[in-house]
Write a structure and sequence with these properties.
- The chain contains 16 helices and 15 strands.
- By secondary structure, the protein is an alpha/beta fold.
- A seven-stranded parallel beta sheet has the order 3-2-1-4-5-6-7. A six-stranded parallel beta sheet has the order 12-11-10-13-14-15, with helices on both faces.
- It is globular, with a radius of gyration of 22 Å.
């Protein structure tokens, strides 16, 4: 099949959606499909050489070094430019809408180049025109309405108005999603939440979980290029007291504040504990201020912009991986930690119980605590730091689960099956 994979933001450092584009496209080309990623900025890096990349530039309003500064109005060159500019100057996030308008304009002249279009949660109005021209499949990782709820609860005063305006695109996403023929959900929980929040017909949803690169993310370091094939893989030693957390965005939904509160409690009994926090922590922002308020500056190290191999090395070096999120539609970092053989302490939130096996009624391969409960989180972390045998058992169980359930090869195959269904439905005009 010839696949157009749309993503309004695709750089791997901006979160799980960028990782999804990178690995799904690779899995599809390895299965023999022809894939072209059509992306807004920030663009993906490290795509498989067999995957073509077409750049659809946005206005770059949120680009460094001067984010949130819209361009002068006389520099606008198209209707999507005007739409994005108007939304940004009124405090709304306009990229999902403007990207789909650009994608529709781009694909109008390329209808013969593709058999199917796959949108990565843009969910803008432009998709409604596009679905009449080509078979269309959309992935919804989780309804962004959940992010909006948490951020509104955390906001105070006039900040609530700005948060509500920023997330105004969620209403558009819900209305567009209800009119699309096929939706891919990444977990049963995320799918149920999408049905509830967006009002989608459940019959239109197919659940295809995300995957993990089990070679990059493993308990031993992957051999470097040029290493003899028969050379033994290098084991990664665990750093005593090291905890790793990966939050794709420094937002209340990720629960980093609760993790820091828990860390302050853990430190009383384990003075050598350290946290390696992979997140875009803004200097002087809420997380940065909380680190200082809790006097944790000497035991918290923040990282941003790490490559997959660097994150994998951190996970291999940790005794514990913490996932303190208040909600997750899937949680790719949790699966990466499982694949790394690292013991996981996570919130019983969203799809996390499903990911670690707790939802199946058996023994989960992680320790689960109530979301937002720093006391429970601290107790679970302290207990594991004192119990190397249990850490090893959890790590081995997590690695086995990752190998069995979360390979990108199986994800690509299941996704291609949805493409086949969409193509057949489109040919019959059963929209």
């Amino acid at each position: 099949m010839r696949v157009a994979l749309l993503s309004y933001r695709s750089k791997q450092h901006v979160g799980g959606q960028g990782v999804y584009v990178e690995h799904l496209s690779r899995g599809l080309v390895e299965a023999g499909h022809d894939v072209e990623v059509i992306s807004g900025q920030p663009y993906p890096e490290g795509l498989d050489p067999r995957v073509r990349l077409t750049r659809l530039p946005s206005l770059g309003i949120y680009d460094e070094p001067d984010p949130f500064k819209p361009p002068a109005p006389w520099t606008l060159r198209s209707v999507p430019d005007v739409v994005e500019w108007l939304l940004s100057v009124t405090g709304a996030f306009g990229e999902p809408l403007s990207f789909t308008l650009r994608a529709d304009r781009h694909l109008k002249d390329r209808l013969d180049d593709f058999d199917v279009v796959h949108d990565n949660q843009s969910l803008g109005w432009g998709l409604l025109a596009l679905r009449r021209r080509l078979p269309l499949v959309v992935t919804i990782h989780h309804p962004i309405s959940r992010d909006r709820i948490v951020e509104l609860e955390a906001a105070r005063g006039w900040r609530k108005l700005s948060v509500a305006r920023w997330y105004s695109f969620v209403g558009m996403q819900a209305r567009v999603a209800r009119r699309l023929p096929f939706v891919v959900g990444v977990s049963t929980v995320a799918t149920d939440d999408t049905v509830t929040d967006f009002g989608i017909d459940p019959a239109r949803i197919r659940v295809v979980p995300l995957g993990v690169d089990t070679e990059t993310f493993g308990p031993v370091r992957r051999p470097q290029p040029g290493t003899p094939a028969d050379a033994p893989a290098a084991a990664e030693s665990r750093v005593p007291g090291r905890i790793v957390a990966v939050a794709s965005a420094d937002k209340p939904l990720k629960g980093v504040a609760h993790l820091l509160d828990a860390l302050a409690k853990v430190r009383v009994e384990h003075p050598d504990v350290e946290l390696q926090l992979v997140s875009s922590v803004e200097p002087g922002g809420a997380t940065d201020r909380r680190i200082d308020a809790l006097d944790l500056r000497d035991c918290v190290t923040t990282h941003s912009g790490l490559e997959s191999e660097q994150i994998a090395e951190l996970l291999r070096s940790a005794e514990i991986m913490c996932v303190p999120s208040l909600y997750e539609g899937f949680s790719l970092p949790t699966v990466e930690a499982l694949a790394s053989g690292t013991a996981v302490v996570a919130s019983r939130a969203g799809a996390i119980p499903e990911v670690v096996g707790d939802a199946e009624g058996g023994e989960p391969c992680a320790v689960l605590v109530e979301p937002g409960d720093a006391e429970q989180l601290a107790a679970a972390v302290s207990s594991l730091l004192d119990d190397p045998d249990r850490r090893a058992a959890l790590g081995a169980a997590g690695r086995a689960r990752a190998l069995e359930r979360y390979s990108w090869t199986s994800v690509a195959k299941a996704t291609a099956d949805v493409y086949d269904e969409a193509i057949r439905r489109f040919a019959g005009k059963e929209q």
